[in-house]
TrEMBL record:
A Pfam family matched in the record: MFS_1
Membrane topology: Multi-pass membrane protein
Regions crossing the membrane: 21-43, 49-72, 84-101, 107-138, 150-170, 176-199, 220-242, 254-275, 282-301, 313-339, 351-369
Name by which UniProt lists this protein: MFS transporter
Gene3D superfamilies linked: MFS general substrate transporter like domains
Keyword Ribonucleoprotein set for record: no
Keywords: Cell membrane, Membrane, Transmembrane, Transmembrane helix, Transport
Membrane listed as a keyword: yes
Amino acid sequence: MATTTKIRPRALVRASGGPRYAVALAVDALGTGLLRPFLLLYGVTVLKLSAPAAGIAMTAGVVVGLVCMPAVGRWLDRGARSTVVAASMLVRVLGVGLLPVTPTGHVWLFATAALFLGIGNQAWPAAHAALVATVAHGRERDAALAAGRALRNAGLGAGALLATACLAGGTTALQALAAVTALAYLTAAALTWSVHVHTHPAAIPDKGKNDGPPPQIRTLLAANVVYAFCLNVPEIALPLVLVTQLHASPMWSAAIFVANTVLVVTLQVPLTVLMSRFSRRTVLALAGMVLTASYLGFLAATSLGRGWSAPAIAMVSLACTLGEILYAGSATALITALAPTHVLGRTLARFQLSTGFGLAVSPAVITTLAPHGPAALWGSLATATLLSASAIATEKTQDTTPGASRLISSAITTD
């Protein structure tokens, strides 16, 4: 199995879509980072909506946004790459652009804005992965996907810090943030459009009726729903436990979130490269084991008492972040390696559906289990994750589709 043992920045940028696309990713992530902390506040503070109404509108936008994924997958399989990524950014411009013109108390326009943002946020991961899979192959592609995630997390973190600093400005600052976010999305879309990456479907042999993903992807999709819960642990589960149950200072939650972001930014690429000596399926199963151990660690930490529980949870969160990094570095890479070339877009769309579903239901599951005690929350997450990791580990499949890299290489067109 080919491995990537060195990190070459120039090659990594080229494998990620080139310098312009890297800048587009950074600008898009910065805009998303600006948006995330203040969208709910915008609905409550500027539009005078009730918190439940604004929250339901945002959740509906995320869930309904998933409905667009089959169409996104078919569009990608017709050869589009950078066009789909740019479209996912442009539709978010529409969403942010609706915010300043939404009258006070008008929940439906706010919900429409959330819907456009949800469509863009759901379409982007699959489109980005398809673009990277088109310009890079093998383990170089894995490293490029990891680099994109690290860059995105850096942009999200920077944007969130800027937004937090501006929130003291009140309504005027929130409206200014909306304008800056729309400009960021528009700039990112223009840069992405200029990359002009697409494939020629005619160059890919007709597979007849075999136009779906390989059968073994069903297990991966089911397991991915459970794995995706780890992405909401630092943002939802840990603050809920620390603040409402252990009555610890909110600073612990903030410190854990910052540490998670810093570790992902600094370790995502090196760890992905380091683990390239193992099969992607093995790394994904290992990620599940690490996440399971971290959930059990959280369970143990909550029994130490108020004085020790918060520091212990913070330490265990480092292991949880390690599991998240291993998961993020192997899951999408495994899906792109397993997918037949002619249905790469639809396969990635199905994968994003499972991720989006996991992210959508995890807040409800976490907040439902937490009141029943640490054993109900962390024991359930540990059991489900361990079963998912075991299902992935016991399946015997190859990490690559024969001839896929060669076929992609013959079909790619860039400028």
